[in-house]
Write a structure and sequence with these properties.
Keywords: Lipid metabolism. This is Patatin-like phospholipase. The chain is of the alpha/beta class. Helices cover 47% and strands 15% of the residues.
Length: 318
């Protein structure tokens, strides 16, 4: 939709398997945006990057219905599908659970494991669903733009990749959690998961030479609030990880709120305007160990919950 419709950017926080929730939400949000808004941008980190890039590719190549189908297809492919994958999945989940309970589990560096099975699996997943050779022509038709985040572990700087600068390697880098994947080399520097940088990129919606949104919709995976005080080591570790996952997001949103204050005060040129921030959250709490869970029933449940939450969200803002 174009013209004078309100413009929207959608930011997808990372969170491993939990971002199947994001895929479900995008399945509902994209057709609604196409009908009533002007979509100017998508962003994501880690699993959120996978969702954002898949949605962008499907949307620009064939429209919102195709994007929704592609999100379903990708996450169906993420789910464990054979006895070998189920065995590996269960072992990873239980290992993570025991670590959360502070059991003495031997640590194994991904560099000590022969080959790059995890990275190869992820690159194969991308290759089956997305033709990155099309990105040059798709980028010429934007908006919407798409941006994903990673961290340059050598320089310690946050790094973002947009539109035709996105490759399978940049999407892999955005998801390269250092205890599971080896770092990804790009331009003679090594990169880790964007969870350590911008989770997800947000301020690029305002600072780049692009159409700026009237509204920012944030699909937030990590719980913002917590009831009571965590007392066990597992609870403390769990909450610490949740807070870490939200630090960069809250900093980015604080930046936007500061710009909003400057707009209201008349300190900025007319090209800047108030950006309404709206949240769509994964309400039910899950343990960090379930972020590596690829059980098909778990993935399907998250997809369905994302769709329901998006329907409720759209009803609230209507």
């Amino acid at each position: 939709m174009s013209g004078h419709a309100p413009s929207v950017a959608i930011a997808c926080q990372g969170g491993g398997s939990h971002t199947a929730f994001t895929a479900g939400a995008l399945k509902r949000l994209l057709p609604a945006v196409d009908a009533n808004y002007e979509l100017v941008g998508l962003s994501g980190t880690s699993g959120g990057a996978l969702c954002a890039v898949t949605a962008w590719y499907g949307l620009l190549s064939a429209g919102p219905d195709r994007a929704a189908d592609m999100l379903d297809d990708v996450w169906c492919d993420v789910a464990a599908a054979d006895p070998g994958e189920f065995l590996v999945n269960e072992s990873l989940v239980w290992r993570s659970r025991l670590q959360q309970l502070m059991f003495p589990i031997p640590e194994v560096s991904p560099y000590a494991v022969p080959g790059n099975a995890g990275q190869d699996w992820y690159l194969d997943l991308l290759d089956r669903h997305i033709d990155f050779d099309d990105f040059d022509s798709l980028a010429a038709a934007t908006p919407p733009h798409v941006t994903i985040g990673a961290v340059d572990l050598n320089s310690g700087k946050f790094e973002t990749f947009s539109d035709d600068a996105i490759t399978p390697e940049t999407v892999l880098a955005s998801a390269a959690y250092p205890l599971l994947y080896e770092a990804v080399e790009m331009n003679d520097h090594w990169h880790w998961d964007g969870l350590f940088s911008q989770n997800p990129p947000v301020k690029e919606f305002l600072t780049s030479e692009r159409p700026k949104p009237d509204e920012l919709w944030v699909i937030q995976i990590e719980p913002q609030t917590y009831d009571g005080v965590p007392t066990s080591l597992a609870e403390i570790t769990d909450r610490r990880q949740e807070l870490s996952g939200n630090i960069s997001l809250n900093q980015e949103l604080d930046f936007i709120e500061t710009v909003n204050d400057w707009v209201r005060a008349g300190y900025l040129p007319d090209e800047y305007r108030h950006v309404e921030i709206r949240h769509l959250r994964l309400a039910r709490k899950h343990t960090p160990s379930s972020k590596v869970d690829r059980d098909p029933r778990f993935i399907e449940d998250l997809l369905e919950r994302g769709e329901r939450e998006a329907d409720d969200f759209l009803n609230r803002i209507a």
